[in-house]
Amino acid sequence: MPIATVNPANGETLKTYEAMGEEELERRLQLAEATFRTYRTAHVVDRGRLMLQAANLLDEDRDDIARVMTTEMGKPVVQARAEAAKCAKAMRWYAEHAEELLADEEPAAADVTDSGASRVRVRYRPLGPVLAVMPWNFPLWQVIRFAAPALMAGNVGLLKHASNVPQTALYLEDLFHRAGFTEGCFQTLLIGSGAVDEILRDERVKAATLTGSEPAGRAVASTAGRMVKKTVLELGGSDPFVVMPSADLDRAARVAVTARVQNNGQSCIAAKRFIVHSDVYDAFAERFTEGMKALRVGDPLEEETEVGPLASEQGRADLEELVDDATRSGARVLCGGERPDGPGWYYPPTVLAGLTREMRIHREEAFGPVATLYRAADLDEAVLIANDSPFGLSSNVWTRDQAEEDRFVRDLEAGGVFVNGMTASHPALPFGGVKRSGYGRELSGHGIREFCNITTVWHGA
């Protein structure tokens, strides 16, 4: 894939970039290694001052970088501005909390009496240069939720961003540099995916994090495993949205629409499979379908637009294949389901019912505004359908019955269970999944410690 900005609203190529050559990559790897030697010793409070300055600059740039994101990957500009604001919030959160999250820990003296030590401490030390392989769907947020904790921990970052968001990638490097971070603390590598393997094999790169497709995750994990390097992977999801008879149906249906079409439906944590108890299935399906039909689809730079184009022509083709496969196998289209005429890579909000396990969309992630409806006879069947997926990123449960809530929290195979609300990421909450959604955690104290050397410091008597 060329490194280029292609406007998904009309298919126009706006700007192209040459991939970095071997000489430039070597210079940047040397710079990362050299910068880490000194940056690692900077006090966390000083790092925090720089991070706060970066957050302030991002706030000032919000409108401009929102338009860049929208032009590069098609998200509605209102959502793009919200993404920029969320990034600044996360940067401030880590600037304010990193010192306590990274503070030395001392086990209770009684617990280590028989260790022979007069004192034992656990210290969190940075690992070194960390390679981040990031996707296009949240081109700022995906990077910041890695970069803010990694930089606050004393690591330095090397960003390989998606090839269709190069302007956003370059903006991020410039943002940290303008904030006062030393040049090598955060660098954008304009490279194709084929160059990732060699960089990951380089001894100067100590760890990697990837958000993206399952094949990409397998490739990075395989190389990192051979090199014995730490990785954190977030590989997508097909999150269930379970509605039980005690739920507030009007609210559940409204939230369900937003949960499905946020970011034009191109979100790993978007609810994709709507599993509804038989007693309320028809009522929910009617409300949900009407809500999907009512969405305003159009130019993502217009303030009123709720759903813009998909990010790429191939992405739309992939989504169409999943819908066509389902309808050929008997799925019913309650709304949408047909590509509109005209320029741009648009696809309408779509609801499918009558799904079976043989359909591809049952087991594959639908990355676009397509929802699948399932009918569950009871709680047991709802849990079975929800867990009948190779993914396990997050989940949504709508019930006002405490026993039902307890059962879902216990039995759903996911990295998160959101009760009577929509899945969302937050700086203070750990984020990540199980099964083929990946491993490791981002955000919160768990996220900042993922790329730390957890060091035991033992003092003799």
Automatic annotation (TrEMBL):
Keyword Glycoprotein found: no
Keywords of the record: NADP, Oxidoreductase
Residues annotated as domain Aldehyde dehydrogenase: 3-457
SUPFAM superfamilies: ALDH-like
Record-linked Pfam families: Aldedh
Keyword NADP: yes
InterPro entries: Ald_DH/histidinol_DH, Ald_DH_C, Ald_DH_CS_CYS, Ald_DH_N, Aldehyde_DH_dom, ALDH_GabD1-like, GABD/Sad-like
Family note: Belongs to the aldehyde dehydrogenase family.
PANTHER family: SUCCINATE SEMIALDEHYDE DEHYDROGENASE [NAD(P)+] SAD
Protein's name in the database: NADP-dependent succinic semialdehyde dehydrogenase
